Amino acid sequence: MKVLLQQFFSFLLLSLLLPQWGFGQLGESYLRFEGGKGLGEGKHIVLVAGDDEYRSEESMPMLAKILSSHHGFKTTVLFPIDPNTGDVVPNYQNNIPGLEQLASADLVIVLIRFRELPDAQAKYLEDYLLAGKPIIGLRTSTHGFAYQKNKDSKFAKWDWTSKIPGWEQGFGKRIFGETWINHHGVHGKEGTRGLVDGVKQSANHPVLRGVKDIWGPSDVYGIKNLPADAEVLVFGQSTAGMNDQAPLIWEKSVMPIAWTKPYQLEGGKQGMAFASTMGASLDFQSADLRRLVINASFWLLGMGDVITPDLNVEYVGPFQPTPFGFDTFRKGMRVQDFK
Q: Shortest CA distance to 112 belongs to which of 139, 152, 73?
């Protein structure tokens, strides 16, 4: 009888714990790094992965761990998730759960491309922007949304080809100052060298503090019509090859690869954006590209005075990025696998 009672209570305890265990292992929709002591203590940064080529599902957790472990920020990473499997699937365009985390965010960092989110999810991002809070957009975020099926959505104006008055060329143009133009460099054959000393009037900008050498294997994007209120911090030059020793191709014109720009939505407060057309996971093997983004995070949060040239941007744990490409993402990965 005693043995039977022990078995019953063991079964009861296991029954109570299993749902919690199952949710933790199979149902989590975002990563959380609590942060703590450090310059960023008390601040919350949300990082949103959502592109189908440049492996943001790898780079956003890496940046989140640097910001949390080295600098004390609480960080949350959101992913595109196929609701049918629970897997992180970068080319699943219609679901980034956890965007309600933006309600408590002080800064958002996005690397998104051609998303067509449900209105209920997009509304969290709209509310964040209406509050005039800062935003960082990387690589394909200039063409972050494409509303092909739900053209009646309130957020169809975010489409990168939008012709809606006030939202011409969509979210990227309105928030970051540019939409998709072209591959100025040869995609998959040429890299990008940041000309850090190329803008003399911005040489003392806090975002550039300690930034000396940026190189990445992703090619230079074409930039055509940045608005007058955008401040270019770094220009980029194509390199004749995809390694950091490849020579510059001086026959090609330089293009902006990092800039700041104020934004404001109708009825909202004015906010500030930082954008860079670099940001492939392989690009972030450049310590100074990581430094550029970490510096920009501090600056956008009104903490430019604490930025030092030796701010810690080292990896927290291993970082082995996957080469960019369509359908090259690691299959069967769950949110917790990126921790």
A: 139
Q: What is the mean pLDDT of the chain?
A: 91
Return d(Cα 306, Cα 299) in angstroms, integer: 9
Q: Helices 287-300 & 56-65, crossing angle to 10 degrees? A: 70
3-state secondary structure of 91: coil
Element spanning 45, H or E: strand 44-50
**Which contiguous run of DSSP H or E holds residue 44?**
strand 44-50
* SS3 state at 190: coil
May I ask the CATH class of domain 29-183+256-338? alpha beta
Amino acid in the structure at residue 214: I
The residues, ordered by sequence, that sit 6+ positions from 334 with a Cβ below 8 Å of its Cβ are: 25, 26, 28, 86, 87, 88
Structure tokens at 169: 């060329």
Residue among 305, 259, 294 nearest 62 (CA): 294
Q: Domain-by-domain residue ranges, the chain? A: 29-183+256-338
Using DSSP bridges, classify how beta strands 74-78 and 44-50 pair: parallel, antiparallel or unpaired: parallel
What is the pLDDT at residue 8? Answer: 40
Question: Would you state the pLDDT for residue 229?
Answer: 96
Work out the widest C-alpha separation in the chain, in whole angstroms: 88
Q: What tens digit of pLDDT does each residue of 85-121 get?
A: 999 999 999 999 999 999 999 999 999 999 999 999 9
78/327 Cα distance (integer angstroms): 19
| DSSP 3-state of 121 | helix
> In which residue are the tokens 């994007």 written?
221
β-pairing, 107-112 vs 191-195, is unpaired
Nearest CA-CA partner of 258 in 242, 273, 274, 272: 274
Q: Which DSSP category does 69 fall into?
A: I
φ and ψ of 44, to 5 deg = -120, 125
- In DSSP terms, which residues pair with 45 in a beta bridge? 75, 107
Of 281, 286, 293, residue with least CA distance to 213: 286
Beta bridge partners, 31, equal 77
> Can you tell me the distance from the alpha carbon of 28 to that of 11, in angstroms, rounded to the nearest whole number?
25
Distance CA 168, CA 151 (A): 15
